[in-house]
Amino acid sequence: MQLFQQGEDVPLPNQPLNIALRWSGAADFDLAAAYQTHEDQRGLVYFGDLGKRDEFPYIRLTQDQGVGDKQGHYQEIIHISQFSTMKYIWFFCWDYHRAQNGEAARFTEGELSLHISNPQWQLDLFLPESPNSNVCCIALLDNTRMDEPRLLNLSVMGMLSGLKSLSQLLSLVDTEWVMQAA
After folding, report:
1. Which of 19, 59, 98, 106 can bridge 27 by disulfide, Cβ–Cβ 3.0-4.6 Å?
2. Which branch of life, at top level (predicted)?
3. For position 67, what pLDDT does the model report?
4. Is residue 42 part of a domain?
């Protein structure tokens, strides 16, 4: 299954998920998950805070790949063991060095894709090409209706000059979800 268009969404099984960012080339892309709980607690799982799989936030990044902009095939994986306590989870990708320096990322060179799966289900999203950005909010897991979590293709691109805060990342996504989370 694929979500081709910005704004498309699908129901998600309410069970553990694996989210894999895959790319090739000589770039240091990073996968991150920003979250907001039903109690409005917010946080970020990324290379600087890998999270925890078996206790809160039940989100864990396996490792940081592509460090040093070396040529290769890479994959970063986030495991979500449960998301019943989460209201929203936003999935971000950025080109680390370019975001730190305020330069355009190499999204068009990396064949970037996001694969969301569990043993019975798989979904693919491909990052949009944008020459003037260095960060992308790829997708949103919306768990506001506990009986029917949904995954939404956001594909929102932005330009940062340094990564300093969660609020800075969320400000790139101009949606009602971010306005509620602020």
Report:
1. 106
2. Bacteria
3. 59
4. yes
Exposure letters 35-65 (e unless 16+ CB within 10 A, then b): bbbeeeeebbbbbeeebebeeebbbbbeebb
CA distance 135 to 30: 9
Instruction: State the number of CA atoms in the 13 A half-sphere of 182 facing the CB.
Output: 13
The CATH number linked to 108 is 2.60.60.30
C-alpha distance from residue 37 to each of 3, 64, 132 (Å): 25, 25, 32
Q: In the prediction, which pLDDT does 146 show?
A: 67
Structural domain including 173 reads 9-181
Structure confidence by residue, pLDDT tens digits, 134-157: 999 999 999 998 678 999 999 888
Mean pLDDT, residues 72-94 taken together: 91
The answer as to whether 15 is a domain residue is: yes
Q: Would you state the structure tokens that stand for residue 92, as one six-digit string?
A: 């971000």
Q: Report the number of distinct structural domains present in the chain.
A: 1
